[in-house]
Amino acid sequence: MSTPSLTALPPAPGQSRGLRSITVTRADMDPRTGLLDYVVRNDAHTWIRRGGGLVAYGETARFTVTGPDRFTQAQEWWRRELAGAEVLDDLGIPGTGLIAFGSFAFSKTSPHESRLIVPRVVVGCGGDGRAWLTLITADAEAELSAEAAEAALAAYLSEPDAGRSPGPGDRLGPGVLSEDQYQRAVAEGVKHVQAGELSKLVLARDIVAHLETPVATAQVLRDLAVRYEDCWTYAVDGLIGSTPEMLIKVENNTARARVLAGTLDRANAPADDPDYATRVLAGSEKQLHEHQIAIDSLTETLQPFTSSMTSHSEPFVLQLPNVWHLASDVTAQLAADDDGRVPTSLALVQALHPTAAVCGTPTTVAGALIRELEHLQRGPYAGPVGWIDAGGNGEWGIALRGAVVETPTRVRLYAGCGIVEGSQPAAELAETWSKFRPMIEALGLSR
Ligand SMILES: C=C(O[C@@H]1C=C(C(=O)O)C=C[C@H]1O)C(=O)O
């Protein structure tokens, strides 16, 4: 079998030397419930979806970077971190051994720092319920044993963070653009599409949650993970949310993506019409067109890295608690190079980001218009968020349906919509509210 191509490089000056890790098997757990017992600290790094995930604590190493080379530099840093690493791993499956969590800025011009973080302790659970514990250290003297790993985990778990109850002073405030300004931006975007400059443009806006007492991130994440079990619930360094969209997942030599485009709010759906979503979404030329643009952009970019690729000829309707989406799953076999290596998950992220689902088509025209019309620093919103292991396996979602914890009592929420020729500003504004809803509710707020 081919493995993703992470060739270790020698350490650079200033780089943490000699990562050491041990991964030990733990009793099987029901990931739907068991992993949630570990989401008890507001500073945990989290990646959870029914059937598996990773919850991590502490920090052994960190890399931050801005600019157009952020993906290349992050890969290089990771390769160097792996150089000379001592890895004891009972399981040797994706997610065990050395791993890094990551979050990348949406834009190559963003001042926001993209980051890779190597945690100290990781609790993992595979889709089959197999559970493990990893301890990572840069200390050459530290003991690598199951006992040491359990003791480190117990120390983190002994200091859980309390939940919070909503207070009368909690409120939602406007972000950078008012609702009217956002609708004007959408109308402006539609004009550019009508003028033939581009076929799709994604415009986002933000709102701000002001809380009376500090946000209880762990509580928010547990709520999201339970309610949005088809989504990937993530937390990396204050970027939190539950995304329905998988940019790329690499497991040995298979890559998978879930592409979404086309959204219907469930809040206004007629209760007595079971075919409503299928009719309105899968029966709408506008929605199918928008979806096709997103699929084409992904498959065209992924194609050179693959030996074969499959996706359904028709999108399916993905039902989430807040909205329905038109969705397509793509599975590809990765092509191996002469050394038998396939691209790593981060190499594919670099090639794929930003997709039409969060930027538009063509990418450069859409990117320039986003900067002109949005007036928003997207920061990590709509950027890749996820994890990578030493073999290059990993899962990278698109950071949607999420928020950034800016201060303990201020949380900024982001949501955007695909604008095509027939888009109506009022409908797109309403759609942003439907996309804010998971986070608004998880924070204990209402609109
Ligand atoms: C941009 C967002 O979502 C994206 C836009 C969608 C759409 O316009 O229909 C659907 C899913 C995502 O690809 C967001 O949630 O902020």
TrEMBL record:
The keyword Iron does not apply. The keyword Isomerase applies. It catalyses: chorismate = isochorismate. SUPFAM superfamilies: ADC synthase. It is an enzyme of class 5 (isomerase). Signal peptide: none annotated. Keywords: Isomerase. It comes from the Bacteria. Its EC number is 5.4.4.2. Residues 179-435 form the Chorismate-utilising enzyme C-terminal domain. It holds the Pfam family Chorismate_bind. InterPro entries: ADC_synthase, Chorismate_C, IsoChor_synthase. One of its GO terms (molecular function) is isochorismate synthase activity. Belongs to the isochorismate synthase family. This is isochorismate synthase.
